[in-house]
Amino acid sequence: MHESGGRKEEINKTERTMIDNLTIQPAGEVIDNFELIKPILEFNSEDDFYFVQILERKKEHPELGSNSRVLKTYYIKNIGHLNYLYDEIRTLCIVFNARAYIHPTKRSFEKITYQTLKMVTDYIIQPDFSHAHRSWDSACGKYATGKDKRWIVDVDNGCCEDDEETLRNFINGIFPATDDRILLKVPTKNGYHLITKPFNLMEFKKQYPSIDVHKNNPTLLFAVKNFDK
After folding, report:
1. Cβ contacts of residue 40 below 8 Å, gap of 6+?
2. Would you list the domain boundaries of the chain?
3. How far is residue 203 from each of residues 90, 149, 151, 172, 173, measured CA to CA in Å?
4. Model confidence over 199-210: pLDDT tens digits?
5. Per-residue pLDDT tens digits for 157-193
6. Full-model pTM
7. Which of 75, 77, 139, 192 could form a disulfide linkage to 115, CB 3.0–4.6 angstroms apart?
């Protein structure tokens, strides 16, 4: 999705007046996963980046016509870059009751550029020139170009009877068994994500049909858990 013109102006105005004000406090409890996620981010060349978006979700904003609306996107080039953006991302999430998400599988500037060129070409052929400007961010969301894929096991509260340890042991025990398939546990608003290396999905779904596994989705970076307007 893209940032609407009026909404973008509102965000930019907020940035100019509030980003530097570090005393902004949320109205409710926050989920801040910045420090938790940093250790799994790997930057091996200037071509590597991680895709971050700030979204308004329909769950918090029922007036939205769609499930979500993008407020801002970022292309994280290194840990210092992420640190630099922390106050900005935190402030925007608090002010707009939005969520920040990060894709745990890295992207490649080079490969995303090629995919963007292909998507723009497709728009030209259709023709559909009014949506061509969305191509870069759309490519960032769709195409995980890193060799080390990270999956997300999306565990909502009450979705299964087994506890976390049992779930972890089952994932690590899927053939070929290993003790390092699970990289990280990330708290979410309704449960948690397990960031994992790929595994035999069919075997997992036989045991846990009610748990979703996402092969190319983002995980939660920051959100206000209990927002009180």
Report:
1. 104, 150, 183, 184, 195
2. 109-142, 151-216
3. 39, 19, 15, 12, 10
4. 999 999 999 999
5. 988 889 999 999 999 999 999 999 999 999 999 999 9
6. 0.87
7. 139
